[in-house]
């Protein structure tokens, strides 16, 4: 359970926010683990900085709708309550009285959990575009500042990922320096999942449904059937409540 993505907020982020001064939480869409290693090594040599690198296992299915939403505090006693549409597709997760499905509700869940007068939600580009005075004002009354980055995922989806990844890594380091200068004391960098780098020919999916249906890395099924090249797991075994299959 110590490697579960769903416990990251409670295990790591929230304890940091209980200390004096703001904490920055970087949620980087599709950042691969070796990118995290690279970032760790870059920051490790910085004076007056203590850096720690640990792995987490992305929740299944490893898609943004799952991974990004569980980076908010949506787990209860280690279990999740996913909300699926008729497709079926994961829309998000129940968090008390409301459903966490996107940036606004993620922010609400995080802010409710950590407190503070404000909880700024900034894109990576917004951090870099603001001047020092603006950033200091934005974080001054916050326990938690969230930085959302989609650059790696967007580049990967367009097929130009490796040519853009280095640029995004430089941007992440620059944003870290800017926020540190603005008064942020602690930082957490994490991701929903890593971007899959494989030749298209290696992604021959087992056909499911109609021929016109899109082929994804996963499929929800009411039948526990085994197929070559696939691994199946019951939703109940994943600690998902209120759903079957």
List keywords for this structure.
four-stranded parallel sheet, 7 strands, globular, alpha/beta, 245 residues, 8 helices, three-stranded antiparallel sheet
Secondary-structure content class? alpha/beta
How many β-strand stretches? Answer: 7
Strand content: 5-15%
Low-confidence stretches: none
Total helical elements: 8
User: Roughly how many Å is the radius of gyration?
Assistant: 19 Å
Q: What is the helix content? A: 25-40%
Q: What's the arrangement of strands in the largest beta sheet?
A: 5-6-1-7
Main β sheet profile: 4 strands, parallel
What best-fitting shape do the alpha-carbon axes yield?
Answer: globular
What's the rounded overall pLDDT mean?
92
Task: Give helix and strand order, one letter per element, not per position.
Answer: HEHHEEEHEHHEHHE
Rounded to the nearest angstrom, the distance between the terminal CA atoms is 22 Å
